[in-house]
Design a protein that fits this description.
Layout lengths: L1 H7 L3 H16 L6 H12 L7 H6 L10 E2 L6 E2 L1 E12 L2 E12 L4 E3 L1 H6 L9 H13 L2 H12 L5 H26 L1
Antiparallel strand pairs: 1-2, 3-4, 4-5
The protein binds zinc ion.
Length: 187
């Protein structure tokens, strides 16, 4: 605790400078290439040197109260059906795991997680919206096979082409549903 208090006195720039120096101590040796330097710097953001920043921010959320929450479809207050369900999503800054409560509206036959909605996470899948946007950008511009290869080059993760197919199909379906919804309103 005393150590933490001490660290608070440094500016963010000081801390980043110190972190950069430590990284250089660890990673730099004669013959280190620019690529190795860049990848080490990128890894820092993803939590290679400690807990990733996303987890730290998520831990600041107020603990979820197990009270009834409004169903997003009908607005009726629905009690918790299951507590502390774990979800892991891949984010731009690496994987993050958190727990949240599940509610199920019998009237609408619709299950929902208020915390996911608060965070505006996609209801399904293992990716955050930011990552999903990028996956989709790859998926609409190339065949899925090629997407996986390009993705690995950009983000250093080897994913199967199925990741791209699933996101493209799901988002495609959502668009179709939204279009049909609009048509209904206008007719
Ligand atoms: Zn409902």
């Amino acid at each position: 605790m005393a150590r933490k208090k001490g660290l608070n006195q440094y500016s963010k720039a000081d801390l980043l400078r110190e972190l950069a120096e430590r990284l250089a101590d660890e990673k730099f040796h004669d013959g280190t290439t620019m690529s190795e330097m860049e990848l080490a710097a990128e890894g820092l953001m993803k939590g290679d040197a400690g807990p990733p920043p996303i987890a730290a921010m998520l831990s600041r959320m107020k603990p979820e109260k197990p009270t009834a929450k409004a169903c997003p479809k009908c607005g009726k207050r629905i009690p918790v059906k299951a507590r502390d369900r774990e979800r892991t999503v891949e984010s731009l800054a690496g994987p993050v795991t958190f727990k949240r409560n599940y509610h199920y509206c019998e009237t609408c036959k619709y299950g929902f997680y208020p915390v996911d909605r608060l965070l505006m996470l996609p209801e399904e899948g293992d990716l955050t919206s930011e990552l999903e946007k990028r996956v989709l950008d790859f998926a609409v511009n190339d065949v899925y096979e090629q997407c996986a290869a390009c993705w690995e080059l950009h983000y250093g993760q080897r994913w199967s082409e199925n990741v791209f197919r699933r996101v493209a199909e799901r988002v495609g379906n959502q668009c179709t549903e939204a279009d049909q919804g609009r048509t209904k309103v206008h007719s």
